[in-house]
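Chapter review: from sequence to fold.
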Amino acid sequence: MEELDLKEIKKEIKKMLQDEMLANKARPDMSEKNREKIGEYIDRILYRLARSKRINLSEDDTKRLREQLISEFTGYGILQPLLDDPTISDIMINGLKQICVERQGRLEQTNITFSDENEMADVIQKMLTESGKRLDRSSPYVDLRIQNGVRVTAVIPPISPLSPIALIRKRAKGTFSFKDLTEKGTITPKVLQFLKYCVISRLNILIAGGTGVGKTTLLNLIIKEFIPEYARLVIIEDTEEIVIDDTQHFIKLLTQPSNIEGKGEITLQDLVRLSLHLRPDRIIIGEVRGAEAFNLLQAINTGHEGSMCTIHANDCEDAINRLVLLSLMDNANIPDNVIRRMVASGLQLIIHSVRMPGGERKISQISELLSEGDRIIVKNIFNLKRITRENKEISELTHTGYVPSFAEHLKIMAGMPEDFFTK
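The token string follows.
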């Protein structure tokens, strides 16, 4: 049968299915029971069409049509198989005819395409309806979160002039631990132990790196495995990505976009200010990207030790420069050297992550911040180096020989051994 015929059949079945679901008050949720019910409706419609119009679909066409319709009505259409695939971490929609995925750190193009703009619009609209957010010409891009912790960024014309585009980032399923990171070579056991001492000792930590290098994964695991359950956490995010155990003492604050009248916006800066009234032991910010950086510096310099956040930067020194620049966004009247002193006195540790050419993610630097007058000095404690092990060359975090100035603090607060850096 011609492809065009199959599309017409699908369109007709879709209309009949909508009518049948409406008549039976069926809801298009993603439960297995509902998928079976929708499948029964489709089977009945296919049988009626075959009898009345003598349409004979092949077994493969029938199966494919059935799965497509079930996915459209109970899931996210042609994207559902990609969302269900545990080996895929990111889905990149570059237009109607190009959908790429990241699988195990590598990008690859799929053979899946949208048939027309309406099909793509239906999928995006379903995500918007679920999240309660809007996307139109007056607000042509949106960040939202759908089922199972999936994060979606969608962009439409006029700022994406050729067609709508979207990035879908899935949350890793199952239990993910530091043991997994050590087995993958992302971090070494010694460095992991060092980070544990730093977190227990309530050092303020900045996690830096580019997109998709594992900043939020690392932050999640630090919270989950190293922060004591009795510590009260205030977690602040634009889009909910940090997922921690219910056993921990925490509250979450999320930003809010303005309404259609341009009112009601709540920014990260507003939430950082609010968090100071909520008695936090530690403040956790999913990502610093604006003027809230200054409010964070004020917080970590006034007793909120053990706070953490992530930032986009190329290396540890770039992370400091960017934090200073962001802090000056709404505070141009404050001298640059004052901000630098606040950074040097408030932050103790920076962790930088990278993505290697083969797709694997690794921590590349762990550094201490020191000050010399108005200058911030970055001292590398661990660096990523090429070493030979068992006749193989590998990249591994190694100690630079520098012992951080807070080493004595780690011994007192977290019981770090005297010979930790020498053995």
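Two observations follow directly from the output. Residues 3-75 form one domain. The radius of gyration is 26 Å.
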